[in-house]
Amino acid sequence: MQIDLRDYQWEVVEPALVGKNIIIWLPTGGGKTRAAVFATRHHLDRKGGQGKVAVLVNKVPLVNQHYENEFNKFLKTLYKVMRISGDSDLKSNFAHIVRDNDVIICTAQILQNALNSTEEEKHVDLTEFSLLIIDECHHTQKDGVYNKIMGQYIEKKHQHTRGLPQIIGLTASPGTDGANTFDNAKNHILQICANMDASMITSSKDCAQQLKDKVPQPVKRYDLTEERKQDPFGDKIKKMMKTIHSYLDEPSIKGNLGSQIYEQTVVLLEKKGAIESNRKKRVCALHLRKYNDSLLINDTVPMIDSFNFLEDFYTNEQLTKVVLDQTDRFLFKVFNDNKDELHALTLNKEYENPKLNTLKKTLLEQFNDSNSRGIIFTKTRQSTHAMLAWIKNSSLLMAANIKAECLTGAGFSNQTKHMTQQEQLEVIEKFRQGSINLLIATSVAEEGLDIKECNVIIRYGLITNEIAMVQARGRARAADSIYSVVAEQGGREIQREHTNEYREGLMKRAIEAVQDMPERDYLIKIRELQLEGIISQKAKDRKQNATRMQNAPEDVRFFCQNCNEAVCHASDIQIIEGMHHVNVNPHFQMYYEISGKINLPKRFEDWEPGGKVICRKCGQDWGMQMIYKSMPIPSLCIKNFVVELPMEKKTFKQWKGVPCQMEEFNYTEFCEANLPDF
User: Fold this and answer.
1) Partner of 315 at 20 to 30 A CA spacing, among 2, 33, 44, 390?
2) pTM, 2 dp
3) Range 662-665 contact pairs with CB under 8 angstroms and sequence separation of 24 or more
4) Residue 578 pLDDT
């Protein structure tokens, strides 16, 4: 099938056709992927059957999208195209698939796993590819998986390794990394270029008008509300929080109730309480955090959802607590004594969040004909479901023929129901066909996904960066479309939106400045940044290795975060597939119980989830049971424990921070220890 490019697409892709590493910068809807498909066919044609292309994406739905809509569609008659994602049975045969196909479309993590594999039949080397296409390449920074892959590439390049692939990056918005000055924004763009080993960023200049006509920008407007005049529901929650403050008598709590600063304070207090084995401090801090979350919910969606959030939390606490102490009884009493009054307040619509009325007005204004399509971007999965219920309960919105559904991430969450990848695809397909005309989405819908053009995009109660703003705005591609920011007059959302507008301008100026740099100066700077990156990574690796060797595993003890019971040593922990930390000591089973059944959104090659692993003494969640090659084994989550080191007690968010070396899992030894007749 012939691939037709517009003039501006020819302009941006041309340097890639002569083998240069480039970053293509075009807005959402500008046809970056089509240009990459053309470059892929040109590359494979030129290689005469000796080329091999990997197309890397950062989200599973993009694997199918790029395969079906672009690469396979245009290349299948000439070349073998294969797709592999995290839920694919093919990923275990990734190395063989690479060798048997011309174009491989996959999530970046699958390639990273193959690059790092020590098993010969699973290992893949970068030199096996002749072209690497990286979608949404602005993520090639810091500890992102793209950057880990490109870090290996750049190290090999500076070792003068032959046969490295050509690189093409695609992005609608490289961002500024939070820069507020031109110099810092320019340095960020140069760093992305260095990380991508790009010889240039290409964008449309000679054909800018054609691009502008093809991808018109929506009209931006601010739909503002006045400050909430009365909020007795929120005031009641704050009064309950102050009651807990008095009981706790902790002067270090800072920040306005309902603010991010307050949340940070109570998170630190919860951590401090765990380390000090001060259960009163830790549990009160946990409950205060939930109350603070409820205030944030009250500021976004109907009061009833804030109430339901708190009620669900206390119901779950009462169900899972094995033993109640004085602190538990006090906290339950505070909620139960005020529960009926709180619920009664949610029924008075006079006190409802005024932003919802503004949102309703905007929706009724925009959904005035059968062709209207829109997306509401909101912060959390919880708020998408709450907003969907609010829309379906509104007779006015239903009368306007609004047919809404949620679109959220596929990652597992204990807090809110996740969507499976199949459910995501089904919702997007319904939206494309018109049986759904309004998506209520988290950030999953901002980047990459092929969503039918919209005439209205609404950002509701969001505080994000300039990349998210640009990506969301790019969804409004229909003629005469609008991009609405629904927020409180003078609130933080408006301040951040103006900051993002400023940073977007900085980003454009920075890119143009990088494009205008003399070639020699640019290449010297890129080489300098790459060498700094190599040195920095080696220093980081040495530090991590030194940290892991600081303590003997038998000298590191783990305590239940909730009841402070000492339950195991680091010498009992082994690591499966470089990530799952399992306790192989058969005596550990005296400390835990298995509760319920965990359902994860994807399949795994060698294991499946069992139930939750909980403390036998107090019911604290510790992790999950893995059924690994038919053998049940407890996999622990480090954040649920306090770790005692020879000199101090600490908490950790990730296992990699624990300063001792734990062994790789030995399946045979584990079976021998746990199966007497093995």
Assistant:
1) 390
2) 0.90
3) 662/553, 662/570, 662/573, 662/574, 662/575, 662/581, 663/553, 663/574, 663/575, 664/574, 664/575, 665/574, 665/575, 665/576, 665/580, 665/582, 665/584
4) 87
- CA distance linking residue 390 with residue 240, whole number of Å: 27
Q: Write the single-letter amino acid at 594.
A: I
Distance CA 531, CA 194 (A): 10
Query: Which amino acid would we find at residue 198?
Result: A
Neighbours of 592 (CB within 10 A): 23
Task: Give pLDDT tens digits for 390-416.
Answer: 999 999 999 999 999 999 876 655 556
The top-scoring range by mean pLDDT among 246-255, 404-413, 614-623 is: 614-623
Nearest residue to 288 (alpha-carbon basis) of 318, 321, 259: 259
Span 440-467, mean pLDDT?
83
**Nearest CA to 360 among 223, 183, 482, 497?**
223
Beta bridge partners of 660: 551
Tokens of 296: 């944030």
| Of residues 153, 106, 154, the one with CA closest to residue 128 | 153
Residue 633 tokens read as 């084994």
pLDDT of 61 over the 70 cut: yes
Two tokens, residue 277: 């084995």
Q: Has residue 315 got a pLDDT over 90?
A: yes
pLDDT at residue 462 greater than cutoff 80: yes
Domains in the chain (CATH in brackets) are 7-214 (3.40.50.300), 219-227+353-501 (3.40.50.300), 232-350 (1.20.1320.30), 553-674 (2.170.150.30)
Q: How far is CA 270 from CA 255, 322, 356, 561, 650, in A?
A: 16, 20, 33, 10, 12
197: left (phi over 0), alpha (psi -120 to 50) or beta: left
Whole-number Å distance between alpha carbons of 673 and 105: 42
Within a 13 Å sphere around the CA of 669, how many CA atoms are in the beta-carbon half? 9
Structure tokens at 388: 């969907």
Residues 479-528: tens digit of each pLDDT: 789 999 999 998 888 999 999 999 999 999 999 999 999 999 999 999 99
Q: Token match 């590819």: residue?
A: 129
pLDDT bucket at 364, cuts 50 / 70 / 90: very high
Under DSSP, is residue 31 helix (H, G, I), strand (E, B) or coil?
coil
Two structure tokens written together for 367: 């959904």
Provide the pLDDT for residue 87: 61
* Dist. CA 571–CA 563, nearest whole Å: 22
Strand duo 557-560 + 566-569: pairing: antiparallel
Lowest mean pLDDT among 33-37, 188-192, 250-254: 250-254
The DSSP 8-state label assigned to residue 563 in this structure reads T
Give yes or no for a contact between 424 and 61, defined as CB atoms under 8 angstroms apart. yes
423 pLDDT above the threshold of 90: no
Give Rg (Cα) of the chain: 27
Q: Would you list the DSSP string of 308-371?
A: HHHHHHHHHHHHH-SS--HHHHHHHHHHHHHHHHHHHHHT-GGGS-HHHHHHHHHHHHH--STT
Q: For position 346, what pLDDT does the model report? A: 96
Separation between Cα atoms, residue 289 and residue 270, nearest integer Å: 9
